[in-house]
Amino acid sequence: MSVMSIRIDESKRKVLKVIASLEGKTMGGIVTELIDEYIKRNKEKIMRLSEKENLNEIMKLSEASFIEWDNEEDEIYNNL
Length: 80
Prior knowledge:
- The protein is mainly alpha-helical.
- The protein is built from 3 helices and no strands.
């Protein structure tokens, strides 16, 4: 399992923490649920593209989206 750090507004983090606590969940659990829902809603897009193009080409298209994730601050997580 990979580690991902995200930056969110402090007030949103506090509200998320309260909601998670009330629901008996962790903040990470809620984020995982949201990611799962997002993937489920959008998976068809990838399937349609993969039918038309080489999957490697699709991955190249997504590289720009991940540039923001590649930073020295998060390097400490690479060895976890």
